[in-house]
Amino acid sequence: MSRNRLGVAAAIILAMAATSAVTVAAPKKGKEEAAAPGAITDKDRERGMAEAPALAQSAGLTCKVVDARFIIADNKTKTNYYEVACDQGLGYVVISDPAKPAPTGAPCYEANRPIEGKPSPLTCRLPGNLDLQAQLVPYVAKSGVTCTVTNSRYIGASPTKTFIELACQEGTGEIMILANPANLDGGAEMSNCLNYEPGGTVSCELTDRAAQLKIIDTLMASSGKTCDLKDKRYVLSTKTGSNWYEAACQDGSGYMIEQAANGSLARTVPCADADFVGGGCTMTDARASKTEQNGLYSRLAGKAGFTCDVERYGVFNVPDKEIVELKCTDRPDGAIADFSGAKAIVYNCPVAEAQGYRCSFSDKAQSYAQVTKDLKSLKDTTCVVRETRPMDKATDTTVYVEANCSDGNGSYVLGYQRGGTKATEVLACAQAKSLGGCKLPGN
Fold first, then answer.
1. N or C, where is the chain less crowded by C-beta within 10 Å?
2. 110 and 25 housed in the same domain
3. pLDDT (tens digit, 9 = 90+) per residue, 217-250?
């Protein structure tokens, strides 16, 4: 990332000022009183409003200029400098150099940088540019990340991106990434300061890494999980603005914690189930956790009447529910269990599919014997189920499974309780047209 050229230009202006190469607007003597130091004269503002809006547009600034002033002129290069304030977003200094193909713009953040310990002659002074942090508010809102800005620092710009560091009242630090020149249509992204190592080309100076990691204590406390924190780390951020952290507990357990873009706790995932987050936990023995969890799910499934020595499990991402697929070492048919309530519900794979969950660890054909049994409990038939599929439609109380028979002499639609495993009705395909109709081969 290259630095913006304005800092160098301002240093050159100081050198030129010493040799009277620069013309600075000065008040007329005589009848007109001298303006106060730093004051903006009517003449500068009039010239600015007359010339700067068109120059700003040529420089690629997409905002509407609502205020402007002429700042200074370089007589040697015929370069003019203007300040503009926009209807929204950042304020800029516009540089009109006849030797360049088009004017250029640099944000007030850069223009305000002191030069060799002295105030820059290009410091923004228009009323609309005095509170630079207020100008960031629409960009923060655009990003979708919650950050009440308490401090900010301009880092620099590349040919296409502008980088500004933010310190947030919520205890986090962010790198705001905007277009160059910055504009709301160009979007706004936030990147957690913990993504950047200190001292890098892009890094954070306004926030302390240890202080930022304290958010893990807050999130863990609000999770309802018992965890005396032993260690913690930042893991990654997502494109949607959420952050992931790992928390290791004194008792050997551990969690991956997702913080939503608004700063709140999104979810807490045990390390045994967190391989999908940045490669999984590194401060906790996830293999031991998986073994322990296998045993727990074996016991819970057994209490629900499904005997299974759990070899492998997978957790579905369903808010406020614990939906788990089970693969067993002692039986070929797998299942999907809902462990959310006081009593677990275990669905065989064909029924689970109709309930909205698909088995991936085992072949659902291994459960056709149970579907055959369910069919025969409702109808006197010789049908042995050969294939099943969930029907296209369901009701508030019932989900439906289409089944055809191995002898080719029949096809049926079975209704099951929504959220349950009991078969409640059986229909012929001709009766099931309102459910999307039968579609299996032979039906």
1. N
2. yes
3. 999 999 999 999 999 999 999 988 899 999 999 9
